[in-house]
Amino acid sequence: MSVAVRPVQRRCLGYLEEIASVLQSLTAPDRCGCLVIGAAGIGKTTVMNAALKQVGRDVRILRFRGSEHMRERQFGILEILLSQAGDVPGGVGAAFSIVARAIAGRSQRTQTIVLVDNADLVDSASMSVLCQLAEHARIRLLVGAEQIRPPLDLVTNLWLSGRMSRVDLGGLDETAVAALVQSSGQTASRFDSVAELHAETNGNPLLLGHVLFGRQQMLTTDRILWKIEPQLKPILEMIAMTGAIRYETMVRLCAPEDLDAMVDAGTITMSQGRYAAVELVEPVVADFLRSRVRPSHSLQLWKRLNQAVIHDHLDGQPLFGYTRWGLSLGHSQPFERVFSAVGWANARGRYSEAAALAEASGHDTDELRLEYARAVRGLGDVATAREVFDKVLKSVTARSGDVSPQLMSRVASMDLRLTDPRQPERLRTQWVSDHLLVPDDVGRLDVTKARFEVKGGRYESGRRLASRVYQDHSCLTRHRLRAGAALGASEVITGRVVKGLKYIDQAELMFTLPGMTSLEREDAIPQFFLARYIAGDWAGARRSVESADHSQQLSQLVGALVDIRTGHPARALLTLDAVLPQAWPASCIDIARVGRSARLYAQTLLGAPSSSTGECASDAGSGGQDDYSDWADFEAQLFELETMALSQPERAAEELYALGESRRAQGAITLASSAWLQAARLGHSGARAELAGAAAQLDGAPGRLAGIVSSAMTDGRPSGLTAAAKQAANFGAMVLCSDLAKIAQDRAVESRDSQAAKEARKLIGESMRAIRFSSTGTQLQSVLSDLERQLVDGIMAGRSSQELAHAHHLSVRTIEWHLGRIYRRLHVVDRRELREVISHWGEGR
Questions:
Q1: Gap between the Cα atoms of 693 and 811, Å rounded
Q2: Over the range 571-589, which residues count as b (16 or more CB within 10 Å of their CB) and which as e?
Q3: What CATH architecture is 585-600+612-772?
Q4: What are the pLDDT digits (tens) for 608-640?
Q5: HTH luxR-type domain: which residues (predicted)?
Q6: What H or E segment, with its residue span, contains residue 319?
C-alpha cells in the first residue's frame, strides 16, 4: 500500500519533525497509521491536518471526531456510514464487514486514510472496527488523543506490536515560540525571556495565543470545563491559584467521590504516596481559571482554603502556591513558611517566582537574602546578586559566633559562584572551612570548590576535592552526584578517559534519584556534556543535555557543536544561524562564545561569506556571571585556529602548538592532544612529537586516535595514513579524515601504490560528501544547475547517456562532460556511487 507524497513547503507551528513523522507513518509500507498524543490545545489537530495536506490528491480522507455524546453510543462515529450502507449491525464483526465494503466502494482504487480526532471520546465498538480495518491494511489510521485510556488501548496494541507509530507532542520549542512572539508584533512583557515564556506555557500554542494576543475565547478550555459540576468549579479555581493542594486538604473541601469524578474526566491528577497532592492536568486550563478569578472572589477562595489547610503539612508546590497567594492578598506569612517556599522555588529553577516571593514577604534575614541572591543570579542579574551577597557576608562576618554552620557553608558556596574562577585570590570566605564539621556542610562547600577549580582550569586540584566528597558516603547524595560529575570531567580532561566516563555513568544514574535540585542541573549537566564531548562520545554528549529538561536553545547549540566535530558543518550552520542571534537566556552552560567561533569555522569551511571575522575573538569569558570556563575558552580558541588554518596553515600550526603547550602545563593532556592533533596534520614537527608522547598518557578513543595519527604522520607510508584516516572517521573527525586521506593519496601517487590511492580517494569522497552535503536536503539544489539536477534524476531512473542525450537534445559527449562535472562536485567516481549518495540523501530528508 503506497501513498504519493508532496513535499513539505514550510515549517508549521514549529512541529516540522513531528509532521514529517506522521507523514512517514502514513506512507511507510510496514505501518498501518500513526497515534498522536498531546494535551489540550497542544496542536494535535493542526499537526494531523498539516500532514494530510502533504499526501497525494488520489488519497481519500475520511474524518471522524469524538465527543462526550458519541462516546455513550455504540458505533457513534460510524452511525452515518453504517446507515448509508442500509444495515444496522448487531456486533463488531458485522460492522467490520459493512464498513469495509462501504470504504472499498467509496474509495474504489484509491487509498483511504481515516482521521479520528478526540479519539479518547470515541466508543469502543467504533474504535475496534477501525483498528481491525487498519490491521488488515484496508485503511491507514490517524488517531489524535489527549491521553491513553480506553478505548485508546486498542490503538496502543497496534503501536506496541510495531504496526503503528506514535508521536507525542510536547509543545513548541523555543525557536518556534520566539518566531511566534516576533510575528505577533508584541512583547511578552511579564516574561524576562523567550525561555521563561516557553517554560511558563509549556510551549502550548493555545496558551501562547492567550498570553500574546489576549484571546478570551478558549474553546478547548471550555470543552474541558463544561463537564465539571458548578459547585466544583471553586475547587478547580483554588487548585489553579496554588498550583497544587494536598490531598488531606482537598477532602475537607469536597467529597472523595467528586475528586474521583474529576480524575476520570481528565481534569485533575492525584499523586501517590505520603505527600500526595492534587493538580490540574493541563496548564492551559489553570491559566484560564486564574485569569478569570476576580480579586474579591480570590479573597473568598483563599479564606475557604485557609480554613481547610493543615499548615504543618504544607510543603513543595502546595506550600509555595499557598504562601504566594496569601501574600498577594495582603496576608502576611511566617518567615519559616516564606523561607521554605523560596528555597523550594529556587531548587526547581523557578528563579523569577522565588525572587518575587522573597521581595513581597517583608522579611529581611540573612537566610532569605541569600536565597534572593541565588534567585537573581539564576536570572542573570549578577550585579544585584553581588550587592545582596555583600550585605549577607558583612552580617555573617560580624556575627560569626552566632551563625549556623549550614548558613556559613551556603555563604561560602555563593561566594564561589559569584567569583571569577580565574581569580581565586578574590574569594572572601576561605575562613569558613575551619568552622565546618558536619559532613553535609563540608561536602556542600568542597564540591562547590571543586566546580570552581575545574572551571578555572585547575584540574588536579578540582579532582582531589571532588574525589574526597565522592568517596565520603556520609555526604548528601546530591553533593556526591556533583562531585562525581566534576571528578569524571577532570579525569577525562587529564587523560584518564575510560575512568572518567565510568564516574560520569555513575553520576548520571544518581541524577535520576529523587531530591535533585537546580544546583545539580547547573553543576552536573555541564560536566556530563563536557566529559562525553571531549571523549568523543557524541551521542552521549547530545543525550546529556537533551534528557535534562533544559533550554531547547541549549540543546540545539550542543547538537550544532557535535555536528561540526562529526563532519556535518552545513547542518550545524543552519542551527547556529537560527539560535545564536536570539536573546541568550541565563543557562547552566554558557557556550555562546564557543557557538560563535564554531559558526565562523563552519562558514569558512563551507566557503560561505562570514558575517564578521572578528566576532569570535572578543568578549572571551564576558557575561557578568561566573560563566567563564577554561574548556569553553580552549574550545573557542581551537575553532578560531582551525578557521585560520584554512587560509594560513603555517601560522595556525604554530599557534595550535602553543595552545597545546599551555593546556599541558595545566595537566589537561586530552585538551593538549586535541590542539597538537590539528597542528600535526598541518605538518608541525614539534606537535607531531608531542602528540606521540600525549598518546602514551591517554586512553579511550582520544588516545587511540592520537596514537595512530602520530605514528602514521611519523612513518609517512600511505597505508598507515589511510588507516589513520579511517580511525579519524570512526572517531567522527571527518575533517581530519579528509586531510589525512589527501596526504595518503599524495604519498600513494608518489610511491605508485594504486590500491592505497584508491582507498584514499574513496575516503576523500565519503568525508567531503559528509562535510559539504550534510544539511537537510538543500545543498544539492545549491550545488547543481537545473540541467545537472535533471541529469541526476535521469540517472536515478536508470537512463543511459544516449537516452539522456536524446531527451535533452544534446550530444552524448556533452552529456558525459556534464556527468564528469557532477561527479567532481559530489565527490563520486561513477554512476553507482552517485546513486548510492542520492539515495542516502533521499532517506535523510
A1: 59
A2: bbbbbbeebbebebbbbbb
A3: Alpha Horseshoe (1.25)
A4: 654 443 444 444 444 444 568 899 899 999 999
A5: 781-838
A6: helix 316-328
